[in-house]
Design a protein that fits this description.
Largest sheet: 7 strands, mixed
Strand order of the largest sheet: 4-10-9-8-7-5-6
CATH architecture of the largest domain: 3-Layer(aba) Sandwich
Strand content: 15-25%
Radius of gyration: 22 Å
Low-confidence stretches: none
Shape: globular
Distance between the termini: 45 Å
Bound molecules: ligand 7TS
Number of strands: 17
């Protein structure tokens, strides 16, 4: 399949940085936006802008239809069983914070939460804060030398005090894909909430929340060609029905009296205030765009690129590459360190050639502690990247290394 034609859809790829073509290898942080998404947002503001739920006029009804269509697309995209299970938030971070506050309603002192050492801070701190408020215990699953968790250790960790298991589907540093479908199966008969942070997997892997048997799932639109400012909180319907909302205001109520209020039905119950209207139009367009190419095709193409980049990086002397060596078990990102070159220096050298990669702790300080470092470099790929870009990146990397090897 020829992916080069899709580059035309992304206007930003025509940009020059310091006279060089832009090479965007920071897709794990956020992806670029195709015209289809940019146009959907502009079209919404130009032709449909109006608040929903409370507008009894044509424009408001049209706006509401766009919002509902967007949710329908999300429902199908992750194979949820009903539209009512899709809540819009500002992103993965807000979704995970919401989930922690929702589950606060069903935990008591001494209960245990199981996380892994590869979590993004967004899937650590909300649980730490919950643990502090409710006197809960946090347990972290260890990683092996390739950054893999062990289902056996998870089984050993689970006690009758375990209340929540929360983990990423794919790590934003290691790239490792966790066996969440197997874990969902394992937790099926247990009285444990299973929470999945799908921020890094949704852009790459087909998700089936029913097969995964997760109770909650979180992701952001901006990492899958959609706009910033919108993300998804998926929750099983019976749970969203059971728990009280965690944010309050307009749009989420049934009846309000001076001293009490009742809640709207799902999904409005969890969406206080004016919904994310233009963002929803953009997210809907992003899903249509990815569907038009086919997520399996994107995965196949980006995997080929990742395999190529991995093998080229491996040929460089004194390079440390983190995560699993098995490309099949990775999403398309590679995190590494060149011995003797600080990731920030490397990033600046690459930037001078128009190449964007990420350097630093990647919001995973506990993981970096385990890896024995405090800063790493990460190149992450998506559907518009090319083999030629990787060649240029590798060449620039080698030149940078040579410069530092000679300098010090
Ligand atoms: N979880 C994972 C696994 C992530 O990779 C990220 C963002 C988040 C949660 C938070 O997502 P947000 O959209 O709410 O910010 N990861 C990164 C990254 O790796 N570089 O920049 C953001």
């Amino acid at each position: 399949m020829d992916f080069s034609k899709y580059r035309e859809d992304f206007p930003i790829l025509k940009r020059k940085i310091s006279g060089n073509d832009l090479i965007f290898f920071d897709n794990g942080a956020t992806t670029q936006k195709p015209n289809q998404v940019i146009d959907a947002i502009t079209d919404y503001y130009k032709n449909y802008n109006s608040n929903i739920h409370r507008s009894v006029y044509t424009l408001g009804n049209e706006s509401e239809k766009i919002y509902e269509e967007s949710k329908q697309l999300v429902k199908e995209f992750i194979k949820a069983s009903s539209y009512e299970e899709i809540i819009y938030t500002s992103g993965t971070t807000e979704s995970l914070n919401f989930i922690a506050r929702i589950l606060e309603q069903d935990v008591s002192e001494g209960d245990e939460i199981i996380l892994t050492y590869m979590e993004h801070h967004a899937n650590i701190i909300p649980w730490q804060q919950l643990a502090k408020r409710k006197n809960l215990v946090l347990k972290y699953l260890e990683l092996d030398e390739e950054g893999r968790i062990s289902i056996k250790q998870l089984e050993e960790f689970i006690t009758d005090k375990t209340k929540i298991v929360s983990m990423c589907h794919a790590s934003n540093v290691l790239g490792n894909i966790n066996p969440v479908y197997k874990i969902g199966e394992l937790l099926k008969d247990k009285d444990v909430y299973f929470v999945v942070d799908a921020a890094q997997s949704v852009p790459h892997l087909k998700i089936d929340v029913q097969k995964m048997n997760c109770d909650f799932l979180a992701f952001s639109a901006h990492k899958m060609c959609g706009p910033t400012g919108i993300g998804v909180l998926y929750g099983k319907k019976h749970l969203l029905e059971k728990f009280d909302p965690v944010e309050f205001g307009g749009g989420m109520i049934g009846i309000v009296e001076e001293t009490l209020a009742t809640w709207a039905i799902l999904p409005d119950k969890f969406e206080a205030g004016t919904p994310l209207l233009a963002q929803a139009a953009g997210l809907g367009a992003a899903i249509k765009y990815l569907d038009s190419i086919g997520l399996e095709n994107i995965e196949k193409y980006t995997k080929e690129l990742t395999e190529y980049m991995y093998s080229e990086l491996s040929k460089i002397d004194n390079i440390e590459i983190y995560g699993t060596k098995n490309i099949e078990d990775r999403v398309s990102l590679i995190t590494f360190n060149l011995v003797g070159v600080h990731p920030h220096d490397l990033t600046s050298f690459l930037d001078a050639k128009g190449i964007c990669i990420r350097a630093g702790h990647q919001c995973t300080q506990p993981l970096l502690g385990k890896l024995g470092t405090y800063s790493v470099a990460r190149a992450s790929l998506y559907l518009y990247n090319t083999k030629e870009e990787i060649d240029f990146f590798i060449q620039t990397l080698k030149e940078t290394k040579e410069f530092f090897d000679n300098e010090f």
